């Protein structure tokens, strides 16, 4: 019998015990599954963080669907159906949010190509973080005016707001960011 | 989440999942799921037929091989669709993922059959009116559809779109049979507009929401 087959049998037994409420067997099963799942998904996902997220999702899904496993059937077949489901789900969300077109400031290649003063990369990351904490609408107004260079009138037209509300929002956001970034710098 | 704190997070997660563990009852065997849906739907159909009434020339029609073939193909579509939905409620389909090809092929045959029939006999499309067949079709479909979705939700599907598709096929098959044995109109235009189109539209919309319906 191959190592793979032994592992499958072993996991089948652990899953069967877990179905009866054996917490030690369940702990062992999940502990062995975590690195296995991560190794499987890491090559098809954009980052190690994504692989961690998906592996955790898979563990939660295993927990939720434990009652659907039949110990007479191969465990890995059941597990791989869950892994593929969660991986596809992650990738669908990833592409829907256009995350594939974003880059992290942790990416050294991006910093080398696009950040002229690399010591400032950390500050850019702080700004990015502070912006992401803002409510969607507020962030959008701020980015359109301060980053993309739209006038307050243009933003007001695009967002169906009045001009003074746009100006007030941009001003308040700038003030808020100053506060946040000032605090983090101290 | 960063890589540095991930091992701790995974350990915490495993710890909390283990704390949450309690003995689980096994999910129904797919055949049990299928049999329950079939039995309850059959009783429901019997009640609906009692109220709607069967077509008057049903006994004569049963001697027509074309009519019988259409009932058989509807029944095959429904039974295989329901059985496939039962397997789909298990993440790995118990190794039966090939079975999706069976109702899909029968559906293909059903569509080709109707296209050929329309080509041979011609198809006069009637102007759309809210006729009794639409109401009857909705009555015939509503409960079996709801019931098969509820049964499917007891499992954990990893293929939500296929699951919705099979649920719709199962119900479309019985609805087709129901309308063939209650409606006297045999022309293709009527069958397409009032028997086939409503269930296709409802089914198509449901399939679009498949992922939301079977989210877990």
Notes on the structure:
The complex is a heterodimer of chains A (186) and B (216). Chain A is mostly helical and 186 residues long. Chain A folds into two domains: 3-96, Rna Polymerase Sigma Factor, Chain: A, CATH 1.10.1740.10; 119-181, Winged helix-like DNA-binding domain superfamily/Winged helix DNA-binding domain (Arc Repressor Mutant, subunit A), CATH 1.10.10.10. Chain A is built from nine helices and no strands. In chain A, α3 crosses α4 (75-96). The longest helix of chain A has 23 residues, at 163-185. Chain A starts with a helix and ends with a helix. Chain B has one domain (24-213). Chain B has helices at 6-19, 30-52, 58-61, 65-88, 101-121, 132-153, 160-182, 188-208, 210-213. The two termini of chain B are 23 Å apart.
Short description:
Chain A has 186 residues and is an all-alpha fold. Chain A has helices at residues 3-19, 23-42, 48-64, 75-96, 108-114, 121-132, 136-147, 152-159, 163-185. The mean pLDDT of chain A is 83.
Weakly predicted, low-confidence segments of chain A? none
Large-scale geometry of chain A: elongated
Strand content of chain A: under 5%
Number of helices of chain B: 9
Sketch the topology of chain A as an H/E string, one letter per element: HHHHHHHHH
Q: Return the domain count of chain B.
A: 1
Helix content percent band of chain B: over 70%
- Rounded to the nearest angstrom, the distance between the terminal CA atoms of chain A is 62 Å
The CATH architecture term of the largest domain in chain A is: Orthogonal Bundle
State the total count of DSSP E strands of chain A: 0
Largest interface: A-B, 35 and 32 residues
Cα separation of the termini of chain B: 23 Å
Query: How many individual domains of chain A?
Result: 2
CATH class of the largest domain in chain A: Mainly Alpha
């Amino acid at each position: 019998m191959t190592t793979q087959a032994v592992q499958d049998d072993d996991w089948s037994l652990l899953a069967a015990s877990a179905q009866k409420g054996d917490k030690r067997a369940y702990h062992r099963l999940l502990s062995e599954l975590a690195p296995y799942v991560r190794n499987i998904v890491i090559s098809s996902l954009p980052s190690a963080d994504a692989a961690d997220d998906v592996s955790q999702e898979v563990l939660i899904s295993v927990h939720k669907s434990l009652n659907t496993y039949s110990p007479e059937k191969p465990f890995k077949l059941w597990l791989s159906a869950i892994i593929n489901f969660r991986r596809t789900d992650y990738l669908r969300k990833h592409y829907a949010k256009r995350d594939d077109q974003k880059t992290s400031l942790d990416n050294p290649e991006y910093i080398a190509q696009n950040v002229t003063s690399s010591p400032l990369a950390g500050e850019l990351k702080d700004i990015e973080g502070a912006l992401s904490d803002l409510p969607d609408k507020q962030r959008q107004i701020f980015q359109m005016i301060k980053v993309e260079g739209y006038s307050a009138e243009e933003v007001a037209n695009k967002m169906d707001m009045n001009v003074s509300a746009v100006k007030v929002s941009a001003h308040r956001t700038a003030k808020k960011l100053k506060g946040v970034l000032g605090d983090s710098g101290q | 989440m960063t890589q540095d704190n991930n091992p701790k997070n995974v350990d915490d997660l495993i710890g909390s999942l283990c704390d949450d563990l309690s003995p689980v009852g096994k999910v129904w065997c797919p055949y049990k799921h299928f049999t329950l849906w079939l039995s309850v739907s059959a009783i429901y159909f019997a009640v609906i037929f009692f109220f709607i009434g069967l077509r008057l020339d049903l006994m004569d029609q049963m001697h027509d091989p074309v009519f019988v073939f259409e009932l058989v193909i509807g029944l095959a579509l429904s039974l295989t669709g329901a059985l496939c939905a039962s397997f789909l409620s298990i993440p790995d389909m118990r190794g039966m993922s090939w079975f999706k090809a069976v109702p899909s092929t029968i559906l293909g045959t059903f569509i080709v059959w109707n296209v050929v029939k329309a080509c041979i006999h011609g198809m006069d499309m009637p102007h759309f009116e809210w006729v009794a067949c639409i109401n009857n079709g909705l009555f015939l479909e509503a409960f079996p559809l709801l019931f098969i979705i509820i049964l499917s939700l007891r499992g954990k599907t990893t293929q939500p779109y296929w699951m919705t598709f099979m649920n719709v096929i199962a119900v479309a098959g019985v609805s087709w049979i129901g309308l063939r044995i209650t409606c006297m109109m045999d022309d293709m235009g009527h069958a397409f507009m009032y028997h086939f189109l409503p269930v296709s539209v409802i089914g198509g919309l449901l399939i679009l929401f498949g992922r939301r319906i079977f989210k877990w």
